């Protein structure tokens, strides 16, 4: 069965691995005729002495089948934090207790909605595109270094590629360490919900829809208080 299937394979793209293991003078990569793909050269991975070869298949991989999502992120800074603190300090909190009385849950929801409203009106927002294969520790510095490495490779600047790869290696190490410390900090602060959200983003697990009917009712009750403030 195996010999019959291997008979349909033929020599395709050259590779160094075949020569190392088989000892043949002409290195190759065996592929089926219907699976032969277009190839393109990419910069070497890490400190490797040979380039990467990208094979583009006819079928669409998962990263192409899933759409690119757009997320809105907050841009925090010291000035923004001071403005938010000033906004909360001048707030008349007695208005909340007068309208809700002993309704602790309604009071908590109203205060949370008010703080969120202040946050959305003060903190700057930015829309970013998220691809299905994005890693949570990838930041703009790493993307800039990857683009520099590609430009150096296209210009056939081998020394430039090595220099950028050295910077990229250090930046990746720092980014992964920072993300690790962020997750560990949430565990130490008992922020289990944020930890699970981070794990779901890493594993790609889809979150189920939430029942927001109860929250909408409380938001309607809080609207008069927010309008007074």
From TrEMBL:
Q: Where in the sequence does UniProt note compositional bias of the Basic and acidic residues kind?
A: 19-35
Region Disordered: start-end pairs: 18-45
Protein name listed in UniProt: Uncharacterized protein
């Amino acid at each position: 069965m195996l010999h019959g299937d291997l008979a349909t394979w033929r020599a395709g793209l050259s590779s160094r691995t075949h020569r190392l293991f088989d000892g043949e003078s002409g290195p190759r990569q065996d592929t089926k005729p219907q699976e032969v793909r277009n190839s393109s050269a990419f910069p070497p991975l890490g400190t490797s002495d040979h380039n990467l070869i990208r094979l583009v298949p006819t079928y669409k991989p998962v990263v192409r089948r899933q759409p690119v999502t757009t997320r809105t992120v907050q841009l925090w800074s010291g000035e923004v934090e001071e403005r938010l603190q000033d906004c909360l300090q001048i707030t008349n909190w007695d208005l909340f207790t007068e309208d809700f009385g002993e309704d602790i849950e309604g009071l908590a929801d109203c205060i949370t909605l008010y703080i969120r409203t202040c946050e959305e009106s003060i903190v700057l927002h930015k829309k970013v595109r998220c691809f299905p294969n994005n890693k949570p520790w990838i930041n703009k510095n790493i993307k800039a270094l990857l683009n520099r490495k590609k430009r150096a490779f296209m210009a056939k600047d081998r020394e430039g590629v090595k220099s950028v790869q050295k910077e990229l290696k250090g930046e990746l190490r720092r980014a992964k360490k920072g993300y690790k410390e962020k997750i560990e900090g949430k565990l130490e602060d008992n922020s289990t919900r944020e930890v699970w959200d981070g794990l779901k983003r890493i594993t790609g697990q889809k979150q189920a829809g939430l029942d927001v009917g109860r929250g909408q009712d409380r938001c309607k009750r809080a609207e008069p208080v927010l309008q007074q403030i």
